[in-house]
From TrEMBL:
Record keyword Methyltransferase present: yes
Lineage: Bacteria, Bacillati, Bacillota, Bacilli, Lactobacillales
BP term (GO), one: rRNA methylation
Gene Ontology MF term list: methyltransferase activity; nucleic acid binding
NCBIfam families: 16S rRNA (guanine(966)-N(2))-methyltransferase RsmD (TIGR00095)
InterPro entries, per the entry: DNA_methylase_N6_adenine_CS (IPR002052), RNA_MeTrfase_RsmD (IPR004398), SAM-dependent_MTases_sf (IPR029063)
Organism, scientific name: Lactococcus termiticola
Protein name: rRNA methyltransferase
Entry-linked PROSITE patterns: N6_MTASE (PS00092)
Length: 180
């Protein structure tokens, strides 16, 4: 795994050994950012199930200002910390060592880009996105990128979020919502 493009482009990323996380492949990561638009002009990122932190690091590499990464697994937290150190800009990243459900009430401000790749996809994605909206944590036109197994069917809309793109890559499906 590596950072695909931007300021940190080409730098290697560590990933977690074993089956506790499912790292997004470079091909899928590149495709996600092609769907979103290659680069960003600022904005805040929230990664609710950060794994190795690769998606958030990619977003900051491509121009986002700051990323908040949430991860409960201790081994994954260590990998995220190493990957953040690799950027040499650790001030742009905040790692919250807890579950998404425990972290959301502690969040403040608004986020422009969200990544959700939870272990129990549909129920968790819908519940998390509803809670984030109820707490007014999504900026206008915020984008939510949901990665699931290809068999998971997410709703067309979740509160103010409307599904705008969906694409399947092998066993993974990427669904993107935009706040209307």
């Amino acid at each position: 795994m590596r950072v695909v493009a931007g300021e940190y482009g080409g730098r290697p990323l560590k990933s977690l050994a074993g089956k506790t996380t499912r790292p997004t492949t470079d091909k899928v990561k590149g495709s996600i950012f092609n769907m979103l638009g290659q680069y960003f002009e600022g904005g805040r990122v929230l990664d609710l199930f950060a794994g190795s932190g690769g998606l958030s690091i990619e977003a900051v590499s491509r121009g986002c200002d700051q990323a908040v990464l949430i991860e409960k697994d201790r081994s994954a937290q260590a990998v995220i910390q190493e990957n953040i150190t690799m950027t040499k800009e650790s001030g742009k990243f905040e790692l919250m060592k807890t579950t998404a459900e425990q972290a959301i009430p502690r969040l403040s401000g608004q986020f422009d880009l969200l990544f959700l790749d939870p272990p129990y996809a549909k129920e968790q994605i819908v519940a998390n996105l509803e809670t984030l909206q109820a707490r007014d944590l999504l900026a206008d036109q915020a984008l939510a990128v949901c990665e699931t197994d290809k068999s998971v069917e997410l709703p067309e809309s979740i509160g103010q979020l409307q599904q705008i793109k969906q694409k399947t890559y092998g066993i993974s499906k990427i669904t993107i919502y935009e706040r209307q």
